[in-house]
Amino acid sequence: MRYLDLGIIVVYLIGITWFGAQFRSRQKTLKDYFLGGKTTPWWAISLSIVSAETSTLTIIGTPALAFGGNMTFLQLVFGYLVARLIIIGLFLPQYYKGELYTAYELMKNRFGERVRRVTAGIFLVTRALAEGVRVYAISIVVAIILGAGETPSIVIILLLTLFYTFEGGMTAVIWTDVVQMFLYVAGAVLSFFVILSHIDGGMPHVWAVAAEAGKLKVIDFAWPTAEGFFTQPYTFIAGFLGGIFLTTATHGTEQLMVQRLLAARNERESRISLLSSWGVIFFQFVLFLFIGILLYVYYTDNGIPMPGLTERDKIYPRFIWEFLPQGVAGLVMAAILAAAMSNISAALNSLASTTVMDFYQPLRGKSNQEGEADGKKSLLLARLVTVFWGGVLLVIALLARQWGNVLEAGLTVASVSVGALLGVFLLGILTRSAGQNGAIAGVLTGLAAVVYLKFGTDVAWTWYVIVGSLTTFAVGSLLSPLMDRSPNQGEA
Fold this sequence. Notes:
76% helix; single chain
């Protein structure tokens, strides 16, 4: 047992849980609990967006991608920037027209209550599945540290994160995100140099080996005539367009990200926080991909057998724990857990806010203002719903152990349904002729199209959001004149 490392990790877990719980006294209304009272500075929201976008999947899954392949994943990241510009131009002005708590209130205002429930329901299912994969990813790290089974590892981290999210709401989520982001970036930079120190010849040797193995390839210009074009996830067209559509969907229509944008003081600060977050995201992905390349060179130089596909997610955390000096390993492992906990807390709060604001309050016939007036009663309900979703994530995490590479598994799950969300949001924002029935028909058709791609074809996951959103938009536009005598502009 490495008691110094374990001690550092335990101190971190206790410290961050205590820190998050300190925000309990600020939680007096639903606006406080779900939007942080709309008093958070833009830079904190920016770093919180980064933390939500960069989970344990990124930290252990991205090095695995470069270890087994190359750097073509960056093609998606280039698309992330274009997506942010689209969100700033199209979505944020719509969100800041009213006092919204969730993304799906916009759909209620535009189409009606049924579309709100459909889109909110899709988010709940999709986000729960995707976060379940992320929770499982944590167990890979904790199991290596403690030598424990995956189930105890999942329970430990989930319970600690649930505690401070339960207590501190969105305020705790954002400020613990800020602390945790600095920790896991510092841990990654530190591990980069430690791994490099184990390689004779330093960076010149790394460049030579990586170049010979094709690891430095960033752009893959495979064209539609190429064999298997739609089955390759990281061609330039698939990656770049997939990154644009995926991020526009997740950051523009999913409550997990929209909730942060709504927590800003005003639309201007929301724009700044979203755009500035891309620079950090790009740096992080480059860093983690290079860590994977360093590990590949290390394995090659030392004649270590290359692990199979299902074992590659363990390469980075295992190297840290086995080869980094005591104390350093504990800090880096604590950094990985930091990313995990920040992501879980964000998911719990966004799932709870959607459940309460888009289902419970409307079913009770209450407006946002009436929910605020309930005070302590509404706050207690929000906290209980948070606990409920913690249990759901636990169950899904236990089922996610057979889903392959954790990064691609998480992105694939998200990609199955967010395309339909993006399609219906674009339908509502870009057209005035679409109605409620046509919009729902479009969503169902878009979901069916992507489910078919997933289970009936070999089409790569990077195409799922593109197909889902375009299908939803096209079908909704075509069927609305037939299914809606007059466009529904928000009546239930």
